[in-house]
User: Fold this.
Amino acid sequence: MESNDDRLSEKGTATMKLTTTTQVSVDGVMQGPGGPEEDERGAFERGGWAHFDNEAGTVMGEIYRRADAFLFGRRTYEIFAGSWGAWPDPGDDPIWKALNTQPKYVASTTLTQPRWANTTVLSSEVAAAVRELKAKPGRELQVHGSGALFRWLLDNDLVDEMTLFTFPVVVGQGSRLFPATGPDRALDLVDSRTTPKGVTIQVYRPTGRPRYATASP
Assistant:
């Protein structure tokens, strides 16, 4: 795990850290948090379970203000392009401003004609391309949603910091952030808060493999 001092370019300026932000339920579901038609894969019928209060919304806005670039998987990119990319400028929304003014990168081997301005498709050598992006001066290269991409980035030690917005609901079906089996990972908790409506917001930094207890003689 790199420290802030490690993320310096040859000219001594800070380089971008890769951060992820995910909305999850208590049982780990990340599918369709925003609405019933957002992601209906697998006959998923319970979309729209993530309800922000003012404090959670403020924190999310603060996150987007730190973005100097975005990295998406194809499905999340198309959801965002069809919503944030299609809505008119509300004039004072930090999320809209960031998404529509900062560069966007999509890891995809099938997307050939992105419809959202300022979009670059990463179709090959994705790990090398992400490392090049992280080496650029800036604050954060942000990943929002994009579950499969998030897991791939984590498995390849490319995630510097991850934020989970955990909503007080058990959805009971749908795609989960982490699979039933997979690589293990130790995390350091660097920030935690709970909003008035019970949304918990935790910020973690990956620190390698966990330590397991050994059996007593």
